[in-house]
Specification:
The complex is a heterodimer of chains A (231) and B (360).
Chain A (H helix, E strand, L loop, with lengths): L2 E12 L2 E13 L4 E5 L6 H8 L7 E6 L2 E2 L5 H11 E4 L11 H11 L8 H10 L15 H13 L5 E5 L7 H18 L2 E6 L10 E6 L2 E7 L6
Parallel strand pairs in A: 3-8, 3-9, 6-7, 7-8
Antiparallel strand pairs in A: 1-2, 1-4, 4-5, 9-10
Helix pairs in contact in A: 3-4, 3-5, 4-5, 5-6
Chain B lengths: L1 H9 L1 H37 L5 E5 L16 H8 L4 E16 L2 E10 L16 E4 L1 H7 L6 E4 L2 E8 L4 E2 L2 E7 H7 L11 E6 L5 H8 L1 E5 L8 H35 L1 H9 L4 H34 L10 H23 L16
Helix pairs in contact in B: 1-9, 2-7, 2-9, 2-10, 3-6, 7-10, 9-10
The chains are: A alpha/beta (231), B alpha+beta (360).
Chain lengths: 231, 360
């Protein structure tokens, strides 16, 4: 398994008490599997994703990425792990305004300590994979919302992550474009063999996922193996 | 610097505005530095040009500070100093500010009285009871050439040579004989031998013992500059202005990069979430600040140098040297980088979690 969450409990301070965002949650995602996490607002989906992304340390439980338990890792080691093994697709594309589409991907090589110019071929290959090869020289303000989200997805894959975490990528898109983006994520999950977690509130996306979990009040209510039945 | 370079190109307007501010501050600091150095030169060049390493003053009394204008030394003190071991040369130097007239031209000058043949004057061999050596500025102002005559405090004197650019307390220097100086110097009681004693010493000299024996107070030639009243007050004011400009530039640059860092904290959060190390982001941001600083300072310094070169030699006392132009530029870059470093340190506190969940 590339991503294993074991008995994760996460609480936030809420006045004098603490609010439980995740209550003893467990999840296993193998490579090449798209797992959809669904649930209403405030159910704990985003918290689950943040914990899986090593951006929040849970109160208890273990996150294991690529066989590495992250509990005892330092902040710098977690950053390094994120850089090497985790790709994140943000809800908003969060592209850097000064960079062209190709450079949005090349910057991933730079933060990994490699020459961005030498990563150009990989960037173009990924842009081609998301159908954006023609737009490599355009800046974010010259692209549509759907195009920006495709760049966001390609960027997440730039450093060949084993885990891909996708946070409601269709929230700013119309249904047609949203469906196209989900199809793209599913295809790339299988092509790039990533363990993908897709957080969404849209049930129609479940048909594309390999498995789904439903989260309610910080707990996993149901786990289903879906469309491809891969896991 | 991958993102930093592209930010510089992308946000051209904002960075150009900041660069312009840096250029203007650098230009102002450069011009002020050149002016400070030029004015200083007019105050002290006659003293810094003396072939002596120590200056013995009349020992001040009542807690007074050393002063070229108040000091008078006697012949006994001078002779006492010449006997002190480690003193290679002990030469009296008389200084007085007076009026020199040649034809219909009249200017204020500093008359430096030296013994005939003294090494203190540029061409001491040509100074005697009737002949004087003029600095170039004095000769220019009086319209004199060697062989010309001038009147100094009622004494008719002949110009033996024009040499050097010595200036003291903003007046050009005329080198006269010590006898002549003693005639025109104001006296109160004992006839003064000179104003100060210029000493050339070796490392073996015991200055404290010499001072005790001669009843003087000796300081290095460099330290003696603070005994020139006009230099101390003028230089102090100008250096204060320069200091404020340095501080202002650091604050302005710090303020700009504080706003800039706040504006791009969303981008920083995204990069951190994607795995960028904080050190990499800090290096990038500081590199961007240094590029801006060096570019702006280079342009500002170049303009200051051109302006300085144009006004040098005119009535404006501007001194164009590497120290007066490049040193302030280096200080500006260092202080600006410090201001920027303090501003961008907030990158360390940006939480990558804010990049998730549509928080931006």
């Amino acid at each position: 398994m590339s991503l294993i969450l074991t008995d994760i409990t996460l609480t936030y301070p809420d006045g004098d008490t603490r609010l439980t965002a995740l209550d003893n949650v467990g999840l296993e995602v193998p490579r090449g599997c798209l797992t959809a996490v669904i649930g209403p607002s405030g159910s704990g989906k985003s918290s689950l994703l943040a914990v899986a992304a090593t951006l929040i340390r849970p109160d208890s439980g273990t996150v294991t990425i690529d066989g590495t338990p992250t509990t005892r890792l330092s902040r710098a080691e977690l950053t390094n792990l994120r850089r090497k093994s985790i790709g994140i697709v943000f809800q908003q594309p969060n592209l850097l305004p000064s960079l062209t589409a190709a450079e949005q991907l090349q910057v991933m090589a730079q933060i990994d300590g490699r020459q961005p110019s030498k990563a150009r071929a990989r960037a173009m290959e990924l842009l081609d994979a998301v159908g954006m090869a023609r737009y490599g020289g355009r800046r974010p303000h010259q692209l549509s919302g759907g195009q920006r989200q495709r760049i966001n997805i390609a960027r997440a894959l730039m450093n060949n992550p084993t885990v891909l975490l996708v946070d409601e990528p269709t929230s700013a898109l119309d249904h047609e474009r949203g469906a196209a983006v989900i199809d793209l994520i599913a295809r790339l999950t299988h092509e790039q063999s990533t363990a993908t977690v897709l957080v969404t509130h849209d049930h129609t996306h479940l048909t594309t996922a390999d498995q789904s979990i439903e989260v309610h009040d910080g707990r996993i209510r149901r786990t289903d193996t879906l469309a491809t039945g891969k896991p | 610097m991958f993102v930093a370079w592209r930010d510089l190109r992308f946000a051209k307007g904002r960075f150009a505005l900041m660069a312009t501010v840096i250029v203007l501050i650098t230009l102002l600091v450069g011009l002020l530095s050149g002016l400070t150095a030029g004015l200083g030169q007019q105050n002290i060049s006659a003293i810094t040009g003396l072939p002596a390493d120590q200056i013995a003053f009349q020992a001040p009394s009542g807690g007074q500070k050393l002063s070229y204008s108040n000091s008078t030394v006697t012949e006994e003190q001078w002779l006492e100093w010449s006997k002190v071991p480690g003193v290679a040369r002990s030469e009296p130097l008389g200084i007085i500010t007076t009026k020199a007239t040649a034809g219909d031209k009249s200017i204020g000058v500093s008359a430096f009285g030296v013994q005939p043949g003294s090494r203190l004057a540029p061409d001491g061999g040509k100074v005697d009871g009737r002949s004087v050596v003029l600095s170039a500025a004095a000769a220019d102002d009086l319209g004199l050439v060697p062989g010309g005559t001038l009147s100094l405090a009622g004494q008719e004197l002949e110009v033996s040579t024009v040499q050097g650019d010595a200036s003291f307390s903003h007046t050009p220097v005329i080198w006269i004989s010590l006898d002549m100086w003693q005639k025109i110097a104001p006296r109160s009681g004992v006839r003064p031998a000179a104003t100060v004693i210029a000493l050339t010493t070796t490392s073996a000299v015991d200055l404290a013992a010499g001072d005790q024996a001669a009843g003087t107070k000796t300081v290095s030639t460099k330290d003696s500059l603070s005994a020139i009243g006009s230099y101390t007050s003028e230089n102090g004011s100008l250096q204060l202005m320069r200091g404020f400009l340095f501080a202002i530039s650091a604050l302005v640059i710090g303020a700009f990069f504080t706003v800039w860092t706040i504006q791009r904290s969303g981008d920083v959060a995204v990069l951190k979430a994607l795995g960028a190390a904080t050190a990499t982001l800090l290096k990038d941001a500081l590199g961007q600040a240094v590029v801006l600083l060096v570019g702006g300072t280079l342009i500002g310094t170049s303009i200051a140098a051109v302006v300085g070169a144009l006004v040098s030699g005119s009535a404006v006392p501007f001194l164009l040297t590497p120290a007066s132009i490049l040193l302030p530029a280096v200080v500006l870059v260092l202080l600006g980088a410090l201001g920027a470093a303090l501003a961008i340190r907030r990158i360390t506190s940006v939480d990558p979690l804010t990049a998730l969940g549509g928080v931006r």
